[in-house]
Design a protein that fits this description.
Elements lengths: L4 E9 L2 E5 L2 E6 L1 H10 L4 E6 L4 H17 L3 E5 L5 H9 L4 E5 L5 H12 L4 E5 L9 H7 L2 E4 L2 H7 L7 E4 L5 H8 L4 E5 L11 H10 L24 E7 L5 E7 L1 H10 L3 E4 L4 E4 L8 E8 L6 E7 L26 H17 L6 H8 L1 H19 L5 H20 L4 H9 L2
Parallel strand pairs: 1-4, 1-10, 4-5, 5-6, 6-7, 7-8, 8-9, 9-10, 11-16
Antiparallel strand pairs: 1-2, 2-3, 11-12, 13-14, 15-16
Helix pairs in contact: 1-2, 10-13, 12-13
């Protein structure tokens, strides 16, 4: 059986998340909601643009770009798609798929053109009625990756018309119903408003229960069990907790077998409190959850390294990390490439926001795009010439100059290193 997906939906109005198209006043922080979905076990997010004007549409596209900078799960984008350029905007904003409204006859030629231009694997079609114009049985199968359908009646109407797999909208939480539907080879995943309710939808628990029922889900399948680990005299294993993006060490705690199993089952770091002698889900009272990204055992199998997405601060003092009491420190030259790139990028951003007299970076921003591009072209030519000559020193110098100017252009157009690395990772 193919792996099934749990798909969340974010409706975007004027840069905010709203409950649905009928409730536009209930505004939420869109990035906070996206991060919640990202960490809680959601496999994909569909972002719908509910804009009324061109300016709002551009704002919502930028919001989707920010979402894709913030999270690491896949997104699809839809709403206000009238021409091929609109499809391109969602893809350039970082969406791996684009959703076309299949109930509109004008979508037929657009989805064919979009499939030919960007690839069938990037095209989803949402259906609320059967009014969609099917040219032939093969038309959808040749141009569409998945369908999103909104009720059982529609699903039955489509039976025999196409073999394109579905994402089924589930109106309310009903485990037996969800299990039954996901058992079908034609249904690839579910979406639904109930996923917006944190109290109603524990996604990791749902995925665990579905896995127990024989449905293949994208959840944690441990390669080691508790019995593979070496416990200390108290029957515990120490856990070093690290931010999965920055690699900063956040805290150290302990697990017993129950905490270990619960962590893997719910996807939230769970410990054994030695002082209270009880199980402790980090963040249960403070909201500062630690969502699991990976767990690894050391070479002796007596310590666990946990890489997590940390909400708020890890320390009870409010600090992000518990390790802030400096004992000794020796100055050193940073050689981590990512940190150096980020540091230089941040300096360029700082120069743009707070100009400094005599700064070459500010000179470039003051002169504008044409001068930046001219300098970038000159450095590209110098790099090519240096590469044709013996020795590496000239190449390194010219390459460094080129990368610096490239970063100036990145800052001008609000492109981050996360955007670049995400684009490269998708190729």
């Amino acid at each position: 059986m193919e792996q099934k997906n749990i798909v969340a939906t974010i409706y975007i109005k004027d840069g905010y998340a709203v409950k649905d198209p009928e409730h536009l006043d209930n505004k939420m922080d869109v990035l906070e909601l996206a991060r919640l979905y990202n960490d809680s076990g959601i496999d994909k997010i569909i972002c719908y643009d509910l804009s009324d004007t061109y300016d709002e549409h551009e704002k919502n596209i930028q919001t989707i770009k920010e979402i894709n900078r913030t999270i690491d799960i896949k997104t699809a984008g839809g709403g206000n798609i009238k021409r091929l350029d609109d499809v391109k905007k969602f893809i350039y904003a970082g969406c791996v798929e684009v959703v076309l409204n299949g109930s509109k006859p004008e979508s037929v030629e657009l989805l064919k053109a979009a499939s030919e231009r960007f690839g069938q694997d990037k095209i989803l079609v949402s259906l609320k009625t059967i009014d969609f114009i099917f040219k032939t049985k093969d038309f959808l199968e040749d141009n569409v990756h998945e369908l999103i359908i909104y009720n059982d009646a529609l699903m039955l109407s489509l039976e025999g018309m196409t073999d394109v797999p579905y994402i089924l909208d589930v109106p309310k939480y009903d485990f037996e119903y969800i299990k039954e539907k996901l058992s079908s080879d034609k249904i690839r995943g579910i979406c639904g408003d109930f996923l917006n309710n944190r109290e109603e939808a524990d996604v990791m628990q749902l995925k665990c229960d579905l896995s127990d029922a024989g449905i293949k889900m994208d959840n944690f399948e441990p390669k080691l069990t508790w019995k593979d680990l070496k416990v200390n005299s108290d029957g515990l294993v120490p856990v070093v907790v690290q931010d999965f993006q920055t690699m900063e060490v956040l805290m150290v705690a302990y697990m017993n077998e129950e905490a270990f199993d619960n962590t893997i089952r719910i996807g939230k770091m769970t410990y054994w409190s030695r002082s209270r002698e009880e199980l402790w889900v980090k963040g249960e009272t403070s909201g500062h959850y630690q969502y699991v990204k990976s767990l690894s055992a050391d070479c002796d199998f007596d310590t666990i390294l946990a890489k997590v997405s940390q909400v708020g601060g890890a320390c009870h003092t409010g600090s992000y990390s518990c390790f802030f009491n400096e004992i000794v420190k020796k100055e050193y030259t940073e050689k981590n490439p990512l940190k150096i790139f980020e540091t230089v990028y941040d300096i360029i951003v700082e120069r743009r926001m707070h100009p400094k007299e005599g700064s070459y970076t500010n000179y470039l921003f003051d002169k504008g795009e044409d001068v930046i591009l001219k300098k970038l072209g000159e450095e590209a030519t110098s790099l090519v010439i240096a590469a044709k000559n013996p020795g590496n020193e000239g190449i390194k110098e010219e390459m460094s100059d080129f990368i610096y100017l490239m970063m100036v252009l990145m800052v001008k157009y609000n492109i981050t290193w996360e955007d670049i690395t995400r684009e490269l990772s998708q190729r």
